[in-house]
Amino acid sequence: MNCFFHPAVPAVSQCVECGKGLCVSCATQYSISICRNCNHARAGNELKAIRKELGMSIGAGLVFALGAMSGGLMAAVVTFYCVASLVVGWFSVGAYMPRLSSLYTIFFFRSTVIYWLIKVVAAFFIGLLLLPFRTVKNFKRLKELNKL
Ligand SMILES: [Zn+2]
Ligand SMILES: [Zn+2]
After folding, report:
1. pLDDT per residue over 6-28, tens digit each?
2. Ligand of minimum distance to the alpha carbon of 37
3. CA 91, CA 50: separation in Å to the nearest integer?
4. pTM, whole model, 2 decimals?
5. Is residue 113 part of a domain?
6. Ligand 2 centre and the CA of 26: distance in Å?
7. Is residue 40 part of a domain?
8. How many Å lie between the centroid of ligand 2 and the Cα of residue 20?
9. Could you give the C-alpha distances from 1 to 9, 12, 20, 29, 119, in angstroms and in order?
10. Which of 58, 142, 49, 130 lies closest to 89 in space, CA to CA?
């Protein structure tokens, strides 16, 4: 098999997404063996996911903060942080929870209510810790992806 982009050059590996043959220079273009089309598609999906997370956490935070304004600025700031944490935490635990869920079902819990309760509590506390770092990281990544 030859490289999809350079038909005269033999392929040394394949795109992990679509299986197209890639030559040395194509295969080493990114951190994983992926063709430029698939990398572009991945970047697009990541961009969408990051925009969604930032939009939802900041948006929901602002809505609730406005509601808490009657309690003073401090209450609004704390509310914003808590709500944004919950959303950001929810996005970050989402990736791990399906696996946990099957473990829980096998060993302890059969109730999905308990599962959701655990997820909300976990999301909240993880979010409290992660919010500043993850938001900064997301904004940085957003800038990088926009350049692609
Ligand atoms: Zn590909
Ligand atoms: Zn090539």
Report:
1. 999 999 999 999 999 999 999 99
2. 1
3. 10
4. 0.75
5. yes
6. 4
7. no
8. 10
9. 9, 9, 9, 19, 47
10. 130
